[in-house]
Specification:
The chain is built from 18 helices and 15 strands. With 442 residues, the protein is an alpha/beta fold. The chain folds into 2 domains: 185 residues, Spore Coat Polysaccharide Biosynthesis Protein SpsA, Chain A (Alpha-Beta Complex), CATH 3.90.550.10; 221 residues, Alpha-Beta Complex (Spore Coat Polysaccharide Biosynthesis Protein SpsA, Chain A). The strands form 3 sheets. The protein has a 7-stranded mixed β-sheet, sandwiched between helices. Strands 10-9-8-11-14 form a 5-stranded mixed β-sheet, sandwiched between helices. It has a 3-stranded mixed β-sheet with strand order 12-15-13, with helices on both faces. The radius of gyration is 26 Å and the shape is elongated. The N and C termini lie far apart (71 Å).
Length: 442
């Protein structure tokens, strides 16, 4: 690589499930956390590529996990790829900056990938600040820093402020680093503070930043699926192809033709960990829409559903919504169950998941997403949503398969449902409730 006066280095991880964003795994599952890491890195790479320094700029991605070929296939040819190396984060940053200056850089800036509010303008200011100081830092909200920049003079004493004197997991990493650097008579400048992404509480702001910009869909439909080859085709065909929203099938490990059907329909198929709650959270983490709609794989949306979603969420005080329930089968008992479900949804504001719950993206993440439990995840989310506002019904009906009522019997299905609800309020473990809900056929 030819020597250039400015070097921009991005620290990131190869998004392998289970190895990245581990604090988010309980909520998103390993695959969902990896998908979120992928989105963060892609955004950071776009920001890095848009930075302007007024001179030559070389861009390098230092990665943990994955191979150079993996990274190149993922992020393209515009970056140079190198592994981060060994040691703690201070040792790895020091090695990267040392390599940059050894290769002729006069200014070097290193950033992390998990700062969704980072902009090209901030990077431009970081390089400009190094004209008048030895070191520049971007403070992170958790007490660390998302950016460090240095000149060769500022780097000479890097073992002082990037060495063992800094406890990298502590809440005051930046404060300690600044104290050590200034003790070595280095002139330091601070940029504006930004929030990084560590845990679930950081997701609302992160998703807002990831989904900004032109061209994003108004609505994302997330479909959790597991061996739904017999139903998914009809569900997808009911989604209007003339103005199709973003559709994500979050597959929980199907062994039938579910994935092939999703791909043939031209929608995104995302591997996700069971139970259904984690599948839906993973799908939401991959979604770009301003609003989210969670659709069971055996449920068909009505014609014009996108306009109905917009109209419902625009009602005063609306926090979320759902459709009327229609059970796709004949029989008087099924009609009674429909009427009871629609009465409950209208007057108690308690629709269930088979009524296709929808809400604004920010509302979903700010409400804590679906709890990672094997059953009642829709019931629990709706209870939390009600604290924010009204749960409204759209004008149309979502037609759900009658297969469960046919397999078990309408009356028995209703009795099982009521037992599960009562058990939930009495504090019965969700795992036990799930066993009640899926009794063995006798």
């Amino acid at each position: 690589m030819n020597a250039t006066p400015h070097r921009l280095i991005l620290f990131t991880r190869w998004p392998a499930p289970g190895t990245t964003k581990t604090r988010l795994i309980p909520l998103l599952g390993p695959e969902g956390a990896a998908e979120f890491q992928r989105r963060l890195t892609e955004r950071a790479a776009r920001v890095a590529a848009a930075a302007r320094t007024g001179g030559g700029l070389s861009m390098e991605i230092r990665h943990s996990g994955g191979t150079e070929a993996d990274m190149r296939r993922w992020l393209g040819e515009r970056f140079r790829y190198r592994p981060q190396g060994r040691g703690d984060v201070g040792a790895r940053m020091r090695a990267c900056l040392e390599a940059a200056f050894a290769e002729g850089a006069r200014r070097a800036v290193l950033i992390g990938a998990d700062i969704p509010a980072l902009t090209p303008e901030i990077l431009t200011r970081a390089f400009a600040a190094l004209d008048d100081c030895d070191l520049v830092f971007g403070p992170a909200a958790d007490g660390g820093y998302y950016l460090i920049g240095a000149t060769p003079a500022g780097f000479r004493d890097s073992r002082v402020y990037l060495g063992p004197g800094v406890a990298w997991g502590a809440f005051d990493v930046l404060a300690r680093t600044l104290r050590l650097a200034r003790g070595a008579n280095l002139n330091c400048t601070l940029l504006e503070p930004l929030a990084d992404v560590d845990g679930p509480a950081d997701l609302p702001a992160a998703m807002r930043a990831l989904c900004c910009g032109a061209g994003r869909p108004a609505l994302s439909v997330v479909i959790p699926a597991l061996n739904e080859a017999g139903q998914l085709g009809q569900t997808l065909s009911a989604i209007d192809t003339r103005n199709r929203p973003e559709v994500i099938v979050a597959d929980g490990g199907s062994t039938d033709g579910t994935l092939a059907i999703a791909r043939a329909a031209g929608v995104r198929a995302l591997a996700a960990r069971r139970p259904r709650s984690l599948q839906m959270n993973a799908g939401a983490a991959a979604a770009a829409g301003d609003s989210l709609l969670f659709l069971h794989a055996d449920t068909r949306l009505p014609e014009g559903f996108q306009e109905q979603v917009r109209e419902a969420l625009a009602r005063p005080g609306a926090a979320a919504g759902a459709f009327h329930l229609k059970i796709d089968g004949a029989g008087g008992r099924l009609r009674i169950i429909e009427r009871a479900a629609n009465w409950r949804a209208r007057f108690l504001q308690m629709p269930y998941g088979d009524q296709a719950l929808f809400m604004a993206r920010d509302v979903f993440w700010e409400s804590g997403a679906f709890l990672p439990i094997p059953i009642m995840e829709d019931f629990e989310l709706v209870r939390r949503l009600k604290r924010r506002g009204r749960i409204v019904l759209a004008t149309g009906s979502a037609a759900t398969s009658a297969r469960r009522w046919r397999q078990i019997g309408a009356l028995r299905t209703w009795m099982i449902n009521q037992r599960v609800i009562i058990g939930y309020f009495r504090g019965v473990a969700p795992e036990r409730l799930a066993a009640w809900y899926r009794p063995r056929n006798r």
